[in-house]
Every structure is written in C-alpha cells, then in structure tokens.
Design goal:
- With 169 residues, the protein is mostly beta strands.
- The chain is 0% helix and 53% strand.
- The chain contains no helices and 9 strands.
- Strands 1-3-4-5-6-7-8-9 form an 8-stranded antiparallel barrel.
- A hairpin with a 6-residue loop joins β7 and β8.
Length: 169
C-alpha cells in the first residue's frame, strides 16, 4: 500500500472571511513590563537576528490582557535600508479561538503589510494580509495597530460533508 492517498474534491471548499483589529506590543528592553524580544545573533547591521514573543491585545499597551502572542523571529535583511524580514505565528489564547494560529511573514520597514500564509485550528488553510502601522514608540518599545483580513476553511466537525474518507480506509 502506498504511503499516501489522493482523491478529487467533490464539493466546493467553503471559506469564511475574517476581520480582526488588534494591537501588537513590542518590548525590546526595559523592566516593566518585561522584555519580550531577545537578540540571538548580535552582529551589527545585516544579519542581526532576534526572537520575539510579542503580546497581542484588544487595546494598545502590554499591560492589557493578551488575546494571543506573535511568536517567531525577525532578521535585518537589508544591507542598505532598514528592512526586517519577519516570520512568526500568531497564537490565540483567548476563549474565542484557543490554540488556533495564523502564520505570518513579510518585510517590515515602518508601516506596511504582511502576508498570512497559513493557519491551524479554527483558521485552517488561512490566507490574507495584515496591514500594520506603528502608533507609539518610546525607548526600546513600540505598539503596532494591526488590521487583519483573512479567509480560512473550517476543517472541524462542523464543516460541510465532503470527501469524508480517511487515510487507510
């Protein structure tokens, strides 16, 4: 028996549209609240790499209760301008989407847009964009305003019946 199975899709994939507005709280240094970023490759300039665990809140500021975290890394990916490559997962922790994720990547240089390239849990097969802008900066800290727009497919038990075969059956 082969280690894989394939089958034609016998019905349309139903997608749900998602709009979300959150704030991302970056704290590179300081003591209150604790930093949520650590430099792991400290070379100056091109190649500087840091890991992050930034809180996501419904209101601006890291002292607000988080609905999730942006966990991943960012790397200085430009030899001329200041362009950071980012790759992280938004992991939801609130009761609305517990454990669900959105996979995010792109370039960061001021205000702009990142790609949503996947998701898990409630947000299976997600794709979309996050428009972001920096709304506050102070020594070692920044707050980002995030407008999230995505589409995802419900792959859970409430999904419409479609190809209900399972591997090995």
């Amino acid at each position: 028996m082969a280690y894989y199975q394939m089958a034609p899709i016998m019905c349309a994939l139903v997608q749900t549209e998602l709009y979300m507005h959150l704030y991302m709280n970056q704290i590179a240094s300081g003591t209150n609240p604790s930093p949520n970023q650590l430099v792991i490759i400290p070379q100056p300039g091109f190649g500087l790499t840091a890991v992050n665990d930034w809180s996501l809140t419904e209101q601006p500021g890291a002292t607000n209760p988080p609905v999730g975290h942006a966990k991943g890394f960012h790397m200085l990916a430009s030899q001329g301008n200041v362009n950071w490559y980012i790759s992280w997962n938004i992991i939801f922790e609130d009761s609305s989407f517990p454990g669900s994720t959105l996979n995010v990547m792109g370039l960061h240089s001021g205000n702009g847009e990142w790609s949503i390239v996947g998701g898990t849990g409630r947000f299976s097969l997600a794709h979309g964009t996050i428009k972001y802008k920096v709304i506050q900066t102070k020594a070692g800290q920044a707050i980002y305003d995030l407008d999230i727009h995505a589409f995802y497919a419900d792959m859970g038990p409430s999904a419409p019946p479609c190809n209900k075969w399972r591997f090995g059956s």
